């Protein structure tokens, strides 16, 4: 755990105060003021999940919150000890229960927040009982109990009788003894103000006198009994009120096991909602956490500078990836200390579940402890110089810091002989590096710049300084040490050139060479930064143009999809109309077929009666076969066998019977006998034509030229046989044979029309031909 002193040094305690200001009631405020950063990655991630969920909740429901919750810890303690709560305390308990019910409902859709209320069960019955018995202004209502309602009715009646008696006294002869014709109260008794000189004229009990002694307040004997009855009624009412309050207090006591967890859950959620509000106020983002010691802050701003309204220059700083120690150099007031504090404070905030004022994509490590030696702790009372105070903090850091810790050292080694101080600073940084401690240190020593350049795992950083304006820019550049600007500042401030030249002669050659190299590196860095900025602007412009083009393309695609959707809708409507027309046509055709069937049956009957009169030899034995497309079938009620042309998906069969085309149910078909000798037909047969032409031609597997020749022969034979409908099977395959067949059918002189077969007859793998 990070020491309290470090939390104060890095101003984490001030951030806790900002958080506490955004809480809604005392328990939440107290939790905010003792908030601690976590040292475990999983715990820190859980806290970040809660804050992110709270931000989502407040954006979806800005009114979400505790809404009336109060600090009821004292009433709960009093009830637990058997005490009686007053009406205001009971109303506070009820309001807190109602607030918990509302908030727990709001957070239910957000699992990280709902987990905080998982073990809390707000006792709704307690709130109902309190609200039933106590009014909003704290009065115990008549409906609280029948006894109370009766006692109050009796009190009102007794008061009315007493008032009536008193009014009568005021109108009697007693009126001349009164200071004023009024009725008042003393010690809970109704009295009249009597002039002191007439006190003996009024029989009764003296309860009080005025400060001047001119008036005595007497309870007349005539109203003594009525006063007693009023007082008895008042006591009865007070006793019943006390009994009701005691009963409600015991109800609260029995619900204590639910009320305490409910209050704890409210306090925890209060802090989480305050974190979300603070994040919104600081325009913060959730950082990516890790336990590998990697820190990469993008456009980081110190939260307290934002809160104070101070203009803040965002900084980019990284640590822990390819180096574990960062040496920050630059002029005084250039931002070195603020950079160290920003690193430390944001690390602590992230581990405490607080979002950070950084750009999205920033990475922060979860460390075990943070050590900070920042600021001047010189003390006359303790006889501590600046060097001694810094050294004491460094000693404490080296005594405890290990791998997984973060150390921040401001002006390490300062306050003593420069050579010795630089040597001491290098030894401290080497020790921290060897232990695997993340470390960032600020310095003015050029030896530490060279140390960072030559030591693996250590890198320089500098805070930028504008030599033209003699002002720091507060930007941080990792990887480049800062040049000394003492001579430039002195020249701008008017120091004579001969003095500056003499000063330069006292610089070592190493120092002059290093400063020249740093100035040249800074110049190149500035030029590179300008080029990068120009490239960034160009890239942003290109991205804007690309985004606009994408939006236009999306718009065009949407319009095309809408047009296609409309076209499909219109096509579907046309198909529906065509199907309805087809069903109507088929129905009409079936009716016509039925009428033809009746005429054929009548003719067949007459022919059978005539044939019965003549003896005929028995027909040769027939060979039965299964019903299939193209096979002979016998239709119930029809004497002449026919040929089955097809069966649709509704079970309606189409049969060619002589010159007729019949549509009959599939159940009315029977296999027709196949005779050894062909049945002679009365139709004229062209010489040389095939006698048994099938109703379908199967071309699957044949080459295109062979198939087309076979198709031509088949069409001739089918036409000669008198068919008007045949089926050509060509299969789907690559579509080459199908396309060739349909192209020939489209121009063949014997073909009236052709179309793809229905699904029941082979679909796109066959073609129906009308001859």
List keywords for this structure.
alpha/beta, single chain, 15% strand, 49% helix
Question: Could you tell me the number of beta strands?
Answer: 23
Whole-angstrom Rg: 52 Å
Determine the strand fraction and express it as a percent band: 15-25%
Structural class: alpha/beta
Q: Are there runs of 5+ residues with pLDDT below 50, and where? A: 378-384, 615-624, 675-690
CA-CA gap between termini = 97 Å
| Percentage of residues in helical conformation | 40-55%
Shape: flat
Number of DSSP helical runs: 21
Overall pLDDT: 82
Strand order of the largest sheet: 10-11-12-8-13-14
Largest sheet: 6 strands, mixed
Description of the structure:
49% of the residues lie in helices and 15% in strands. The longest helix is centred in the C-terminal third of the chain and has 104 residues, at 509-612. The strands form six sheets. A six-stranded mixed beta sheet has the order 10-11-12-8-13-14, with helices on both faces. A five-stranded antiparallel beta sheet has the order 18-17-16-15-19. It contains 21 helices and 23 strands. It is α/β, with parallel strands linked by helices.
